[in-house]
Amino acid sequence: MTPVSRAIDMWTKKDQSHSYMAIVFHLIDKAQFQSKTRLVAFELIDGVHLGKELTSCFWDSIEERALLHRILTMTGNNASNNHAMTTQLQHKYQDIGMTWPYHEHFHCCTFHVLCLLVKDFLNSMGQLTNEDYIFLITTPPEINT
């Protein structure tokens, strides 16, 4: 079986009433040497986004789909709950006799880090609203000039 890299992202409604976790797998099709991306799950998260809730949601989702043995790397933002989740996932893998050292296989999303840096920089220059931030990251460069 081909190992996969996976990415997660979270969305929360503005009124904080619903949160969702998207689990996406990325792999290389060895036969055709093509990159493939698959949305594996889009899960409702109950409660706050603590590492244990994220761990439970992710683990249950991939276990249900018999994908535990296929995880190679993970990418997510650099939030502390993602680091807590990957630490807990390492322990869950150890409990079933598998090795998955999170410090080698979890990667922070570079784009997310850059967006946070730009947002902080722009905030330091004046008031920046969420609408301004969304416009900046979704507008093609030729329109921003």
Automatic annotation (TrEMBL):
It is found in: Nucleus. GO terms for cellular component: nucleus. Keywords: Metal-binding, Nucleus, Zinc, Zinc-finger. It comes from the Eukaryota. One of its GO terms (molecular function) is zinc ion binding. The keyword Zinc applies. This is Uncharacterized protein. It comes from Austropuccinia psidii MF-1. The lineage of its organism: Eukaryota, Fungi, Dikarya, Basidiomycota, Pucciniomycotina.
